[in-house]
Amino acid sequence: MANNRSLTKIAEGGRLVIPAEYRRALNLEVGDEVVCLLDEGEIRIIPRQEALRRAQNIVGRYVKARSLVDELISQRKEELQNE
After folding, report:
1. What is the distance between the alpha carbons of residues 71 and 74, in angstroms, rounded to a whole number?
2. With bands split at pLDDT 50, 70 and 90, how would you rate the model's confidence at 43?
3. Cα 48 to Cα 14: distance, rounded to the nearest angstrom
4. Which of 2, 16, 19, 28 is 20 to 30 A distant from 34 in Cα terms?
5. First CA to last CA across the chain, in angstroms?
6. Contacts for 54 with CB less than 8 Å, ≥ 6 apart
7. How does DSSP assign 45-82, residue by residue?
8. What is the pLDDT of residues 2-33, one digit of tens each?
């Protein structure tokens, strides 16, 4: 994106038009969900999928990756050995 600033106005009902260049850059279509963050006097608009990816990255730092399928197979093997 050549220009990272755009002037827009707040319309009736508090509506804000996201410039077409920005929508294209973020692959936003009519009806897509976005997350709005109020951060130090700024509004950040993040596509829902990007917000989800970021949340998964944060959680991934604290949760050990595991396979629920492998855990279930392991439990079943244990149960069979204990019979």
Report:
1. 5
2. very high
3. 20
4. 2
5. 64
6. 46
7. EEEHHHHHHHHHHHHHHHS----HHHHHHHHHHHHHHH
8. 558 889 999 999 999 999 999 999 999 999 99
